[in-house]
């Protein structure tokens, strides 16, 4: 018995150690060519499945990184001339405990799921991901070297699942037309399989992903055995029809109109795809979370329009492509409102009309990626009635052409070098804006150390002025692997660097350097499953003239305990006074901020619970005066059933004695005065999100958001040349409040692969009150808010996916 015990012990040690060793080896699996047909029904009953090689031996990604999975998963791969077949068997010793939450497409929720990523060029830089839940809900993504996931990317593929008394199974068919790959006769792709067991909060992968190494797709295994695969003509079109009924709230009349257009995808080769959108309609896109900013900088809003979020990873190089510039508010929108010759505004469009947009992107077998983007917007006119009673049109934005070209070469060890150029051309005023640059990253053989950087040159040409040039240079070097990671960086932006015709930059004229230190605990220690810690420093000067701006020390913590409660915090300290050269809105003038500290704490319970609450509390305080800020955020998550999820949220911010710019004024001696104010700012944002899923193809989503901001000025000052504030007898009334209210209700039916029917109701209100009868009480404010005009929009949109190969097969059958 003693000998048997020793043998068993030794065997267990060998299994555990070999599990660790094998987990760190790059695994390989071979796909077999299909002999017969496969029926995608979620049951792996065909003989070909039993002949295929098995990929197994999954290891944990979380919570116990590198340990063997608690459950067995087996994956087999087949292929034919149409595409790749994946059959997965997920054994489970408690099949009655599978999580089967029903969600909408591209949302895995808390359901158990299986999926995989494919890197057809096997360079660890970009991959396609396909996932399916226990309820058959699909999610497809594109992911890159840094782990950014583009969930907005959609492909047309087939899947089916089945639940049995041993666990569950999934069958998936990915057509070659959904992927991009080289012309090599024998393909070797990067691949990794993933499984989530939600009752255990266990996430596993086939090829081990070491948490100490940055990136996931660079830690994929390999798929071999693919020979003589060639996608047939990749050509698809998605025409749409939409109809609208709108009321702007100023009267009882409704305006009715219809739109039509089309999206086209054309595979020019195995690797390159042309995407086009003709007269697009983005009426179904969720409304922006509008805020009112008191800062001197533009507000950044996330892109939500599908064409501009799908397949744009190449165009993110150099951080000079902000697609919200295309179809944005006309530059002359506000000039119409304040034009003294305008007696009445009949129509003033708040968005320019996008005529068309085109994307060409792909990558060769040698790892050379090429991307070309072009879009055109039409002349935009406001229709007005002048003081003489004449109706006429005023040009608020001329025809504009937007263009970007990117060339990206990938190298070994997840390294790359990119060269790119953007251009914005407006023929009527004869102006052009260009940004050219390079973006690079190089890592050593062990992927332990990295040097990366960006160099951009902005150029502005105008027929009435001399050209203007500026540049940006950013360099970072550091260690990106291991428990302890660090980097140092230097950023230089000249005072005339300006990428904002097609990009987004809050401010230029920056000469800054800093360091980042990360100490991460990936292995469980006591009651802690995982802990991430950061410490950063940042020293900022103006580029021209070279003057000190600010010094910041900041850090964060993110900790997950064994009960899957996650807590964290963030702090930021300015130990010395800061010189703000932007708040005064006047070149050369400075405003001095006192030293300050900012602290935020947050907690997030185990998301397996039906009812839970996410919390965030924070505060900011200056030293030397009495500026204080407090904020709180509460977000309950109420899973009413496996089909119904409610997420109410309330965010409260209160700034006491906040000091900031008010306006420019004229003194008694006709001198220019810069007026600042001391103010109390109340900000309350409440929202409600509700999702009801009828089945995996039909869902309804409801989004309600109310944003309220109240600014109460207590006293006024003038900014002196030294950057300090002097008392002022300024008397103008400056208090104001802002209300922004939105409702988005969307019913969506995916009635066929790639095809949708959408019913949409949008309700919107924006109110900026600047009178002496401001409502201070929140609930009284809400009641009064609805006395203002409310914009209502009802619409229906039909999209139908047409695939050339399917049309040909139907034609042959007839």
Can you give a write-up of this model?
The protein has 814 residues and is mainly β. The protein is built from six helices and 46 strands. The chain has a 24-stranded antiparallel beta barrel. The termini are far apart. The model is unreliable at 1-23 (pLDDT under 50).
Please describe the topology of this protein.
Layout (H helix, E strand, L loop, with lengths): L1 H22 L4 E3 L1 E2 L13 H5 L2 E2 L3 E4 L10 E7 L3 E9 L21 E7 L6 E8 L4 E7 L4 E2 L7 E7 L2 E9 L10 E12 L4 E4 L15 E7 L6 E14 L7 E13 L4 E7 L27 H4 L23 H5 L4 E6 L6 E10 L4 E10 L2 E7 L4 E7 L2 E12 L3 E12 L4 E13 L5 E14 L2 E15 L4 E10 L16 E12 L6 E14 L6 E14 L4 E9 L3 E3 L10 E3 L2 E9 L6 E12 L5 E12 L4 E23 L5 E24 L2 E22 L5 E3 L8 E17 L2 E15 L8 H8 L5 E9 L2 E2 H10 L1
Parallel strand pairs: 1-15, 2-5
Antiparallel strand pairs: 3-5, 4-14, 5-6, 6-12, 7-8, 7-13, 8-9, 9-10, 11-12, 13-14, 13-15, 16-17, 16-45, 16-46, 17-18, 18-20, 19-22, 20-21, 21-24, 22-23, 24-25, 25-26, 26-27, 27-28, 28-29, 29-30, 30-31, 31-32, 32-33, 33-36, 34-35, 36-37, 37-38, 38-39, 39-40, 40-41, 41-42, 41-43, 43-44, 44-45
């Amino acid at each position: 018995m003693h000998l048997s015990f020793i043998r068993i012990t030794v065997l267990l040690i060998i299994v555990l150690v070999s599990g660790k060793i094998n987990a760190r080896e790059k695994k390989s699996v071979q796909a077999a060519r299909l002999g017969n047909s496969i029926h995608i029904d979620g049951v792996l009953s065909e003989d070909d499945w039993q002949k295929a090689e098995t990929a197994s031996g999954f290891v944990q990604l979380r919570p116990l990184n590198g340990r063997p999975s608690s459950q067995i998963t087996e994956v087999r791969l087949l292929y034919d001339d149409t595409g790749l077949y994946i059959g997965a068997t997920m054994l489970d010793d408690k099949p009655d405990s599978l999580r089967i939450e029903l969600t909408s497409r591209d949302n895995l929720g808390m359901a158990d799921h299986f999926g995989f990523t494919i890197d057809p060029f096997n360079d660890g830089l970009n991959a396609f991901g396909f996932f399916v839940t226990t309820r058959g809900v699909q999610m497809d993504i594109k992911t890159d070297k840094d782990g950014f996931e583009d969930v907005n990317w959609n492909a047309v593929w087939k899947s089916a699942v089945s639940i049995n008394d041993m666990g569950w199974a999934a069958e998936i068919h990915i057509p070659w037309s959904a992927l991009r790959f080289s012309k090599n006769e024998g393909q070797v792709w990067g691949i990794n399989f993933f499984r989530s067991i939600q009752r255990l909060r266990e996430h596993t992968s086939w090829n081990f992903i070491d948490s100490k190494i940055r990136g996931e797709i660079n830690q994929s295994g390999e798929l071999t055995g693919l020979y003589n695969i060639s996608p047939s003509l990749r050509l698809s079109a998605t025409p749409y029809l939409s109809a609208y009924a709108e009321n702007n709230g100023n009267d009882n009349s409704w305006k009715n109109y219809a739109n039509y257009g089309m999206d086209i995808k054309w595979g020019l080769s195995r690797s390159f795809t042309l995407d086009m959108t003709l007269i697009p309609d983005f009426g179904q896109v969720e409304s922006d979370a509008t805020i009112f900013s008191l800062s001197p900088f533009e507000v950044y809003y996330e892109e939500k329009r599908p064409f501009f979020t799908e397949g744009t990873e190449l165009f993110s190089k150099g951080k000079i492509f902000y697609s919200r510039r295309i179809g944005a508010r006309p530059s002359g929108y506000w000039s119409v409102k304040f034009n003294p010759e305008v007696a009445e505004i009949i129509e003033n469009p708040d968005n320019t009309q996008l005529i068309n947009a085109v994307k060409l992107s792909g990558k060769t077998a040698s790892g050379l990626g090429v991307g070309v983007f072009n879009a055109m917007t039409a002349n935009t006119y406001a229709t007005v009635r002048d003081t003489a009673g004449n109706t006429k049109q005023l040009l608020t934005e001329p025809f504009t052409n937007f263009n970007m070209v990117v060339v990206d070469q990938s190298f070994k060890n997840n390294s790359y070098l990119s060269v790119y150029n953007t251009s914005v051309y407006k023929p009527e005023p004869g102006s052009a804006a260009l940004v050219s640059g390079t973006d690079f990253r190089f890592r050593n053989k062990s992927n332990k150390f990295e040097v990366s950087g960006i160099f951009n040159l902005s150029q502005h040409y105008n027929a009435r002025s001399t050209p203007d040039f500026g540049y940006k240079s950013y360099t970072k070097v550091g260690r990106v692997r291991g428990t302890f990671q660090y980097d140092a960086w230097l950023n230089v932006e000249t005072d005339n660097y300006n990428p904002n015709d097609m990009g987004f930059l809050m401010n230029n004229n920056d000469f800054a350097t800093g360091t980042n230190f990360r100490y991460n605990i990936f292995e469980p220690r006591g009651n802690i499953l995982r802990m991430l810690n950061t410490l950063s420093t940042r020293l900022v000067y103006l580029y021209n003239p070279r003057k000190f701006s600010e010094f910041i020390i900041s850090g964060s913590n993110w900790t997950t305990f064994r009960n899957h409660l996650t807590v964290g915090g963030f702090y930021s300290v300015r130990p010395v006074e800061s010189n703000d050269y932007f708040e005064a809105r006047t070149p050369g003038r400075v405003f001095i901020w006192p030293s300050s500290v900012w602290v935020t704490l947050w907690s997030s319970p185990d998301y397996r619970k039906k009812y839970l609450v996410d919390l965030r509390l924070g505060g900011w305080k200056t030293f030397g005066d009495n500026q204080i800020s407090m904020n709180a955020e509460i977000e309950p998550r109420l899973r009413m059933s496996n089909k119904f999820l409610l997420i109410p949220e309330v965010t409260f911010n209160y700034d006491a004695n906040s000091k900031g710019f008010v306006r420019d004024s004229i003194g008694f001696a006709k001198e220019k005065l810069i007026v600042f104010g001391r103010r109390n700012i109340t900000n309350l944002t409440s929202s409600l999100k509700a999702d009801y899923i009828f089945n995996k193809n039909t869902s309804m989503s409801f989004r309600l958001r109310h944003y309220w901001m109240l600014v109460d000025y207590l006293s006024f000052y003038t900014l002196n040349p030294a950057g300090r504030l002097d008392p002022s007898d300024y008397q103008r009334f400056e208090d104001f409040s802002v209300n922004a209210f939105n409702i988005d209700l969307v019913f969506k039916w995916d009635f066929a692969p790639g095809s949708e029917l959408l019913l949409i109701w949008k309700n919107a209100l924006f109110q900026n009150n600047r009178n002496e009868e401001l409502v201070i009480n929140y609930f009284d404010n809400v009641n009064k808010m609805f006395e203002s005009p409310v914009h209502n929009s009802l619409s229906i949109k039909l999209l139908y996916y047409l695939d050339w190969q399917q049309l040909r097969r139907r034609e042959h059958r007839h």
